[in-house]
Structure formats: C-alpha cells, structure tokens
C-alpha cells in the first residue's frame, strides 16, 4: 500500500499558506490546512477537485494557543494514520512604520504570533515528527522566515526581530533534532504579493518593490520537502540571494550602509 506523505500548514487560508496547500495537494500529499480564518479555509476546500478534497483536512488554529496546537495536531494525525512528515510554520503577521508611531500592543502581538506561535508548533509537533523520521518521506520542519532576518530593517523593526528569532531557532533546532532524524530549515523571501504588504510603510518595499508571488514560495517549500542535504536557510528570489551573499562577504559597516540606502 502506498503511504501518502503528510504536511500540516499554519496560516493556510490565504497567501503563501494557501498556495503551499494547493501545491502539495496537486503533488499528491495529504494536507492539513489550519488557520484562524474559517471562511478562508472553506473557500480553499470549495475550489478543489474531489480527489484533492479527500486529501485535505481543515481546522481552526490560533497559533498563540498551546492547547489549540495540540488539538490541531491530534486532529490532523487522526486522518493521516498518525503520520506527520512536514510541519510548515507559515502563520505570521506584520506591523510596519516607525516603532514609536505604532501601538505597543500590536507590536507585542506580532511577537506572540511570529515567535511564540512558531515555537509552540515546533514543540508540540516533535513527537509526531519523530514517528515519521524513519519513513520513506522522512520528517522535517520548514519555518517561515524573511529577508528581514539578514539585517535589521528600519520601519520593520519588530517584524525583523521576530524573523531573526525564527532564524536562530531554526539553526538551533536543526542541530538539536538531527539525532531524532528531524531536519529543520527556513525559507527567506523578500516581499511577496500578499495582503500582508498592502499599504506597508517601509522604505525597503518602495526601493525594492514586490517581485515574488505566493506560488514562488510554495514551489521552494516543495523543493525543501524533498531535500536531503545540510542546507538550512533558503533565500527566495535573486534580490534576497544577492543580499544574503553580500552580507556574508561585506564588512559590517558596508552592510549597514547598504541597508540604510535600501530603507531610506
């Protein structure tokens, strides 16, 4: 009997999460699409062909609620025979503009979703991933990071900090969970054409534009799902790859100067 590989995606009702769900369904995976947006999940399911809808599991997930994470994982694995080959920690929010101009509570909520929510997903998913580690499809976590984790971005200070946290957690867990057979990676795009960047107040988006689509990220995540090497960070798009390469080769003062120009 052919065993269908399985992926659980947080923030799957729209944007990158939705595009990733559609990509993996098209490739024959069993997909758990979870989000706080129940209507968005219903719209996702309604657009599918019957064979894809049979492999889709949807559910409401508030990533800042630890119990809700456990419920979502229990729910999804009850449909997948206990298997979880891939957790895609995609859910996230963004606040832009000068730090002093934004509400403190909104910035703190960003940290709750982008950092605490991702931490909870990793923590609760580990036992399920360990069970899948010896399967043909293996076990891995892909975290949603950002080019903002290359160098701190003015106008995106807290968002950038949250993605630095994601980057650090990804690096640490990839080493920590290697003995368990669980690979941990992150995907690092620049700006993606989603609702998140609508009316965004940051100099970098005005200077660099929005060149990536959710489908670009979904295609990268699918490649990462089959990757067997040691690579951890996956920049998406030429701009991000150039920025990451330059940050490794340039002295810190030049990197700082470049980012000041980009975000002016």
Automatic annotation (TrEMBL):
Q: Give the record's keywords alphabetically.
A: Oxidoreductase
The entry's cellular-component GO terms read: membrane
- Give the GO molecular function terms: oxidoreductase activity
Write down the InterPro entries for this protein, in alphabetical order. Answer: NAD(P)-bd_dom_sf, SDR_fam
Q: Which domain of life is it from?
A: Bacteria
Which family does the similarity line name?
Belongs to the short-chain dehydrogenases/reductases (SDR) family.
Question: Could you tell me what this protein is called?
Answer: Short-chain dehydrogenase
Q: Which organism is it from?
A: Pseudidiomarina aquimaris
Q: What is the lineage of its organism?
A: Bacteria, Pseudomonadati, Pseudomonadota, Gammaproteobacteria, Alteromonadales
